[in-house]
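Hi R.,

As promised on Friday, here is the backbone we talked about, encoded as structure tokens. Could you run it through your design pipeline when you get a chance and send me back a sequence?
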């Protein structure tokens, strides 16, 4: 005989197919909701507009009813920026920068700061924001459209793929005649591709450089 059980959360009948017959909930959702110590919904007041809202999050850490209210409450970031601007005008900061310039250690100090975990963490955090992602995606889409418009029908796509696969480390696949140059525009063809170091390719941009 198949013994049916009732879920402790939703009171639905289910069949326990486990070996030890220890199941108490019909699904993982009921299990997470039933074993939760905090209640599922809590009514709170928004810190900005004082409106009541139901906090349905798992941790119950919400403080604002909407995303717009949360953005308004970020006054502490504005205060922090004002503090740094005022600090950079003080004599302590100016004298410290002068000492580093006189000793010739300003570049070393900046390099150490760029390699520090604090600077890297701030960059990675900024790259997750919409201020970086939206224009970055627009640039990528524009680059793809430029390549498609510049590839003719007679282009050998297999050779172009091989050129990209065989690119060595530290090098970029560059167009000898740029796709959107000021004076000359090239095509996305295997004969127009070349290998360049990453630093040179970034500094080159849309310029045409003749190799002598």
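Update: got your reply. Pasting your designed sequence below so it's all in one thread:
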């Amino acid at each position: 005989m198949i013994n049916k059980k009732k879920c402790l959360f939703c009171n639905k009948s289910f069949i326990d197919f486990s070996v030890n017959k220890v199941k108490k909930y019909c699904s993982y959702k009921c299990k997470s909701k039933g074993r939760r110590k905090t209640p599922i919904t809590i009514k709170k007041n928004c810190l900005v507009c004082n409106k009541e809202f139901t906090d349905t999050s798992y941790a119950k850490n919400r403080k604002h009813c909407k995303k717009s209210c949360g953005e308004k409450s970020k006054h502490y970031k504005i205060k922090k920026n004002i503090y740094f601007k005022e600090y950079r005008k003080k004599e302590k900061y100016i004298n410290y920068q002068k000492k580093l310039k006189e000793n010739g250690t300003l570049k070393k100090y900046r390099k150490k700061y760029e390699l520090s975990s604090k600077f890297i963490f701030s960059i990675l955090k900024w790259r997750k924001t919409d201020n970086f992602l939206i224009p970055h995606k627009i640039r990528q889409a524009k680059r793809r459209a430029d390549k498609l418009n510049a590839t003719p029908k007679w282009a050998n796509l297999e050779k172009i793929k091989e050129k990209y696969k065989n690119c060595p480390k530290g090098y970029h696949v560059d167009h000898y005649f740029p796709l959107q140059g000021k004076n000359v525009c090239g095509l996305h063809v295997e004969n127009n591709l070349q290998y360049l170091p990453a630093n040179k390719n970034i500094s080159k941009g849309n310029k045409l450089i003749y190799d002598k």
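One thing I noticed while checking it: The chain has a mean pLDDT of 83.

Thanks again,
M.
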